[in-house]
Amino acid sequence: MEENKILVIGHKNPDTDSICSAISYAALKRKITGSDSYEARRAGDLNPETSFVLDYFHVPLPELTEDVRPQVCDIEIRTIPGVDREMSLKNAWKRMKEENCVTLPVVTGNNHLSGLITVNDITKLNMDVFDHEMLSRAKTPYRNIIDALEGELVVGDAEGYFDHGKVLIAAANPDLMENYINEGDIVILGNRYESQLCAIEMDAGCLVVCLGAAVSQTIKKLATEKGCRIIVTDYDTLTVARVISQSVPVSYGMVSEDLLTFSTEDYVDEIRDTMARVRHRDFPVLEGSHYRGMISRRNLLGMKKKQVILVDHNERGQAVDGIASAEILEIIDHHRLGTIETISPVFFRNQPLGCTGTIIWQMYRENGVTPDPVIAGLMLSAIISDTLLFRSPTCTAVDREAASDLAGIAGIDMEDFARKMFAAGSSLHGKSPMQILKQDRKEFTVGGKNITVSQISSMNSGEFPELKAQVLPCMKEYLENSRLDMVFFLMTGILENSSDLICVGDGAEDLVKLAFEGRMEELPGDEGFRLPGVISRKKQVIPAITAGLEYIS
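Above: the chain's sequence. Below: its structure in token form.
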């Protein structure tokens, strides 16, 4: 189980504010709590602008988290050590009692799962004591036999395997013994010299001498010459006959085919039905290809939800998948109130500022923490990006003041850095039209309509006509293959302080005309609309479309 990991994460299709705010806020939480549990994550791929920022400040890319539903790694995985495939049934049973379990994992030297041995498997094997050749078919190590009998090897080598022959009791006289002792057999007998001598001469592989009887030097010498092992045990003949089957290695009785295993990355809601349908007591868990531990149905009762802090949004449609199954601890945002619901009260901070990074900078100051130059640079980048270097109508005096403070800490010339950042972000080179459409997209539900608004910013608005021609067919395809009712694509010219807008969907064009009546210019053909002074999706486009939809409905 990931110990107390708290994920600080922004929205899908993350922008610079989403990523930089997540990294900066996680750093602040670590600083003020003294805990390393807070970790910045991302819910999607980065756009070129954000990639430029992280590269500029040499900040590692946050780990991708596409779903926050509880996983097997969030369950308490019982650490039952794997056993070697040559462990005897006797020792496997002993281990089960020590671990208070009914299933043991059998692993190889590199901790790869080889099979499973259960109490039922051991019971079945012990009921098959009439099978005289079971030990040889199982290729039983001689050290297992010595251990099971609590015996002493007085002749021969403890290494090696009993791999051919049968197990028998020499209860008859030597004349009859000659008829049923074969080469390699294990012969259980007492202290009768004649019986011991006969078994050796018939090429028995091993003698088990019961009741701790002494073995003469002559018998030892003959056994050595014939390659026959001799084990002396204090057990009587009946006990030896019953106990010797416990020396069989677990590999003989384990299940090794079609093993039902779970991965630490599996989602709990996907394995729950399997666990209910297959009535095993325990299920092995793998981490990659390595055995990690065991879980059972009762472990699901103590399952912990992933703990999450959301930054730069509070919309369920924009949140990482599985957010309804997570425990939301905090929300830090500067957008309108959305559709996120929580089970219990959370810390929620929402301010009408141009950037989430500005709010987080305020929280640094409130807690008396001075960020290092790198973190200051990240928060500055977020403000520059979200306010388009203070051109956006969402920008406030608080954003400007925060940017100035952060630029001083980071030692950055804002104008020069902004030009480089915008140039990197506005480059569409190498991207397909569909990638351009999806790289910065926000989805909303308003008045029963599902809409999405994509936005790109460019230092060169001269590329917009060609871009429209390329993206428009993708918008139509995207609309047909989704649950969306309308798709809008906003192209913002940073230098011109203006945007072009194209749209698809039933009633989309009429909605734009209504929403921006008197503030837009209708362009010819499929050129869409020009919106002078409109550069903010959050403050200018979404509210206007929302108002239009509410008026229509």
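The domain at 73-125+252-302 is CATH 3.10.580.10 (CBS-domain).
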